[in-house]
Amino acid sequence: MMKQLFIKSAAVCCPDAEVLVPFKLHSSDIDKSLIPAGMRRRTSMTTRMAITAAKLACSQANSDTQNLASVFASLGGEIQVTDALCRLLPDDNELLSPTQFHNSVHNTTAGYWGILNQCQAPTTAIAAADDTFAMGLIEVWAQLQQQGGGERLLVCYDELWPQYLAPPIGQVAFACAFVLSSEGEQSIGAMTIPQVLSGNQQDLQPEWLKLTESAPAAAAIPLLLALQSKTAGSVPLNIKAPLWATQFVA
Amino acid sequence: MKTMENNHALIEPVAVTAYSALSACGMGNKALYQSLSANQSQLAPLSLFNITFPSYVGEIKHPLLDIGDQLADYNCRNARVALTALNDQQGGVRDAVEVAKEKYGAQRIGVIIGTSTSGLYETEAAYGVLLEEGKMPDDFHFVTEHAYQATARFMQLELGLTGVCYAISTACSSGAKAIAAGQRLINTGVCDAVLVGGVDTLCRLTLRGFRSLELVSSQPCTPMDKNRKGISIGEAAGLLLLEKCHADNASAMKVLSVGESSDAHHMSTPHPEGKGAALAMTNALQLAGIQAGEIDYLNLHATATKINDSVESRAVFSVFADTVPCSGNKGITGHTLGAAGALETIIVLAALQQQFIPGTQGLKELDEDCQCQVIQEPLQTQGMQIAMSNSFGFGGNNASVIVSL
Question: Is the pTM of this model over 0.95?
Answer without folding.
Answer: yes
